[in-house]
Design brief:
By secondary structure, the chain is α/β, with parallel strands linked by helices. Helix content is 30%, strand content 26%.
């Protein structure tokens, strides 16, 4: 059975052996050509094999985006083992809980993390050997041996990625080589329409690889098309701007909050005498991970002279599901059409298709749909369903949990999470719609919307707003502004001014947590 090493890396090594594959901006600009990446990954695979890693093994890896992480991943994949990517922002007790779920045969910790990090994890999770790695080297003690494979890893598994766990303990999504390779190739077809010269294809890789958006679009995609990818170990707007200009980045892939922060940073340091945009080489920008506020998109395009195209996907689909033709102008609230090889449908509560323009739960079918959840057959069975829709042959669909509608042209409009829907007097209210409206408030720097229980209306929206520096506003002032843009039942019942919006590693607002901390009956 083919591996991602064979499906993604080897073809590019054969076509562009001496071309640069990866550059690590935060490691002093160190870079590897495709040939060097293969050689480094081969050496890493030999070291893993020497300690007992083989097909069927699960190797957990915690590391920031770095040359070492890229080498480790392709080394793991060469052996047919599965990589369990762990977020380095998690605290040791959180990582230990995750490891107790995935039960890896070996645990790799990057040398770029604090020295005491590996020791703490080794003490908290002693059931698998913990080894520090640097480049293609393992700091393995003599006699160290990985645990024997236990037969739990589904055949063909390439990665196990843990979701954010906003509704409980994170779930391990099992993605196969076929899942990730097919999604990578489909995404490549979308980008090919731009017809950019090969040597000018330079991708940003600031999105972390422990998240599917970063893994597929910022690592596998550029490697597959023989392009260069520029690694950033963490998100810093000023560092990203400088690195993007230095390395002549042409593809920028970020989540909405990152676009907002990058724009603000560019404006703050803008020399009005300079007529060229902050990143002159920029050719295409894609946003995903959460809804993109139209005001953020407009301001970014004003500064950078390149539009942002909103895409959509979820971890369980490897993750890309839809994107608008990059030659077409962006449409407010639109996440494009299904990419090649993907089928999207909107379903009602009885899992029957709804007419175009009608809201329902979005479901997806295709070779990119995950195997399921690791060691969780009940959840797998409930979320991955074989359906025969509208007289078509039965297919296996993933129920995304996102509310959406599709127009007659097949364009997707995401309303929000099914679990986040606010029912005000029985009427549907989407938090993203309210947030997009409030972002237009002139004094607003950032905003997030959540829901609370309300005796009068059953539920009601609450807005958390960060004001621009030096500005002041009242709750009534914001509500009055909202009333000019939104129906009465959509106007927030409360507006709370806060110094900042807490966000996850992927810059998603942690609204529920903040509301609970403020004493609201959030749910």
């Amino acid at each position: 059975m083919a591996t991602l090493y064979e499906e993604i890396l080897l073809p590019s090594v054969q076509k562009r052996p001496g071309s640069t594959a990866v550059v690590s901006h935060d490691e002093g600009g160190v870079e590897l050509t495709f040939r060097e990446l293969k050689e480094s990954s081969d050496a890493f695979a030999l070291r893993l094999e020497a300690v007992g890693v083989r097909s069927g093994s699960r190797v957990a890896v915690v590391a920031p985006n770095s040359i070492g992480l890229v080498t480790a991943l392709f080394g793991i994949w060469k052996l047919g083992a599965a990589a369990v990517l762990v977020a380095p922002i998690l605290r040791p007790p959180e990582i230990a809980r995750l490891l107790s779920d995935c039960m890896p045969q070996l645990f790799l910790v990057s040398h770029l993390l604090a020295p005491e990090f590996a020791d703490a994890l080794s003490n908290l999770y002693p059931d698998a050997p913990t080894v520090v790695f640097r480049g293609a080297s393992l700091a393995a003690k003599p006699g160290l041996a990985a645990n024997e494979p236990d037969g739990l890893t589904p055949e063909g598994t390439a990665a196990i990625l843990y979701t954010s766990g906003t509704t409980g303990f994170p779930k391990g999504v099992v993605l196969t080589t076929e899942n990730l390779a097919s999604n990578t190739r489909s995404a490549a077809q979308i980008l090919d329409v731009l017809d950019i010269p090969q040597d000018d294809k330079v991708f940003s890789a600031v999105l972390p690889f422990f998240h599917s958006f970063g893994l597929t679009t910022c690592l596998l995609l550029p490697i597959a098309v023989g392009a260069k990818t520029v690694l950033f170990s963490a998100f810093n707007p000023r560092v990203l701007l400088a690195g993007a200009a230095k390395h002549r980045i042409s593809f920028l892939l970020l989540v909405p909050e990152m676009y907002r922060a990058v724009t603000a940073s560019a404006v703050a340091s803008w020399n009005q005498a300079v007529t060229s945009p902050p990143i002159p080489s920029l050719r295409a920008c894609i946003s995903g991970g959460s809804p993109l506020a139209w005001s953020v998109a407009i301001e970014f395009e004003r500064v950078f002279k390149v539009p942002i195209h909103q895409g959509y996907g979820v971890t369980e689909t490897s993750p890309v599901l839809s994107l608008l033709d990059l030659h077409s102008p962006p449409v407010p609230g639109c996440s494009g059409r299904a990419i090649p090889g993907v089928e999207l449908v909107v379903l009602d509560e009885n899992l029957a298709e709804v007419p175009s323009g009608t809201d329902g739960e979005l479901a997806a079918a295709g070779p990119n749909v995950a195997w399921g959840y690791f060691r969780n057959p009940e959840l797998t069975e409930s979320k991955f369903r074989v359906l025969a829709l509208s007289g078509r042959e039965p297919k296996r669909y993933y129920l995304t949990g996102d509310l959406a509608c599709m127009d007659s042209e097949g364009r997707v409009f995401i309303r929000g999470r099914k679990d986040d829907l606010i029912l005000v007097n029985g009427l549907n209210v989407y938090p993203a719609e309210i947030a997009n409206a409030l972002m237009q408030f002139p004094k607003c720097a950032d905003v997030a919307v959540g829901r609370i229980l309300c005796e009068k209306h059953g539920q009601e929206p609450v807005a958390l707003m960060v004001l621009r520096e030096g500005e002041s506003a009242t709750e009534d002032e914001v509500k009055s502004f909202a009333a000019g843009l939104l129906a009465p039942h959509k106007v927030p019942g409360r507006v709370v001014f806060v110094p900042e919006i807490k966000k996850s590693a992927l810059q998603k607002p942690m609204v529920k947590e903040m509301l609970l901390e403020l004493g609201f009956p959030a749910f």
